[in-house]
Amino acid sequence: MPAGRSGPAAQSARRPPLLLPLLLLCVLGAPRAGSGAHMAVISPQDPTLLIGSSLQATCSVHGDPPGATAEGLYWTLNGRRLAPELSRVLNTSTLALALANLNGSRQQSGDNLVCHARDGSILAGSCLYVGLPPEKPFNISCWSKNMKDLTCRWTPGAHGETFLHTNYSLKYKLRWYGQDNTCEEYHTVGPHSCHIPKDLALFTPYEIWVEATNRLGSARSDVLTLDILDVVTTDPPPDVHVSRVGGLEDQLSVRWVSPPALKDFLFQAKYQIRYRVEDSVDWKVVDDVSNQTSCRLAGLKPGTVYFVQVRCNPFGIYGSKKAGIWSEWSHPTAASTPRSERPGPGGGACEPRGGEPSSGPVRRELKQFLGWLKKHAYCSNLSFRLYDQWRAWMQKTHKTRNQHRTRGSCPRADGARRERLPNHPVVAWSCGLQPSKSI
Amino acid sequence: MSRREGSLEDPQADSSISPLPHLEAKIRQTHSLARLLTKYAEQLLQEYVQHQGDPFGRPGFSPPRLPVAGLSAPAPGHAGLPAPERLRLDAAALTALPPLLDVVRRRQAELNPRAPRLLLRLEEAARQARALGAAVEAVLAALGADETRGPRPEPAVVATNAAAAAPDAGVFPAKVLGLRVCGLYREWVSRTEGDLGQLVPGGPA
What we know:
The complex is a heterodimer of chains A (about 450) and B (about 200).
Chain A: H1 19-29, E1 38-43, E2 48-50, E3 55-63, E4 74-77, E5 80-81, E6 87-91, E7 94-99, E8 111-116, E9 122-131, E10 138-145, E11 150-155, E12 167-174, E13 181-182, E14 185-186, E15 193-196, E16 206-214, E17 217-220, E18 224-226, E19 232-233, E20 241-244, E21 252-255, E22 270-277, E23 284-290, E24 294-297, E25 305-313, E26 333-336, H2 361-376, H3 384-396
Parallel strand pairs in A: 2-9, 10-19
Antiparallel strand pairs in A: 1-3, 3-7, 4-5, 4-8, 6-7, 8-9, 10-11, 11-15, 12-13, 12-16, 14-15, 16-17, 16-18, 20-21, 21-24, 22-23, 22-25, 25-26
Chain B: H1 3-6, H2 20-52, H3 83-111, H4 116-143, H5 155-161, H6 171-197
Helix pairs in contact in B: 2-4, 2-6, 3-4, 3-6
GO molecular function, one term (chain A): cytokine receptor activity
Subcellular location (chain A): Secreted
Protein name (chain A): Cytokine receptor-like factor 1
């Protein structure tokens, strides 16, 4: 967990004790380094500045004379030599620097401003922290897994980049009593998140907020008030099984078990199922699977492998009125629909252009056909000739355009050839219907 | 290299119970460890300079090589010393490094809190230095050359004694100090690898 940072006032007071004596021994006992004998001090040391502001700095040389002068000294910033016109000699031992309109720091450890002797050796350094104060974090959202913990996520302020290390601290307390607590497990589900693993109360609201702090200031989010019971999620349903429904080519049965972690609690679970064809990325979602642990998918393509997933929303725990939070999807389970050997009306059927893999085109056609029959036929005997007549009629009314397939060799995809419809078995027409002249 | 410096023969050993295979194995293992840690030390240095920003890491960057309390770089005459003496110096340096690496890690945790890999490498380097130091001392013991030469001041004790009057250390000097410590770690691990390599049977004389 990143160390918390206090405001700018306290930054200079925080130094690890062991480092200081090492540096003391270095400074007091060091043999002369570099080209010789001189050391220097840059002022200010490690300043913190707003983006766009200016900086006046000095490099004061001290050490044994002769030669301890400011003549020939120069500055670099992050390794780049600064233009001479930005510097001026204040006195024999001091070189000044004026920087304007500073950009945000290149690295969080600070920009390296270095004072060099004429021969390039380093005399002194200072680190600049140029950035922005934090903006107010917002969009806090929280969820509890099985009422045992609480995880919260937030968005860090409108513009995000402060160019300074910004510490985010998630705080929480019981609404009407209790002390402020600080979340300790950060970055559990992304860079701006925190996990509270235990000791959470139910049936009483919490107040939750985020504090952002960096060297230039701090900001606090709005307070989110919630009851743990209103933000419960759970594990995905286990033991998802997908199987065929006898020999039905267009159906699969999906069964699962309700999440065991919440089995002892009264709640009305909602479930969602999604499925897709093996070689597709498009999922179809079945939404209205409420409080059941099985479902039958229909309208599927024969002889096709489908991937299926299920998720659960444990809403209404202990009477909570809130919507609840969906679990993750279960691991995909695959199964295939059977394919009959007899080439029926679906055999060799064209898929609709860009059609959904789960919609049976022949089935849809037959459904439309039966609807048409109710209007136009006065007997129940059906025949493929009648079906052909209907298809021709549909073509005339431009209703079959969306059912054509754009690739492959299905003859029915070609509007010009649709009227031929070769190889269809024909049964004698025995009902009163005007045969279409297009056949 | 003379036989005196690189030889493993112990004229006082009982030839019927030869400790040599055990000693050779220990030397080989320690040498392999040193070789591995030399690689890690190089990676640590690269990771370190990356997070300090330019000019750290640039070719030609040469901050003052100020000495670090309790530890100095291998002396120019190190390679000419007898093998046991070299190994003693290696072991002493490896013992002095962990607290220095811990100091650097704590400072970097403030300067680069979003650099977990750097912080982890610094933590691991301290552990690795301890492990290699212990392994070198075991080799010295097996060579019968592990007598100490008087009390060695613990670097932490030295540091603590001087704590009170120290001025506040700026960020830039802290970055330079960390670079120095990481550099010393690499130098001493590499030096240890070289010294052990000369003892490995069949290794360079």
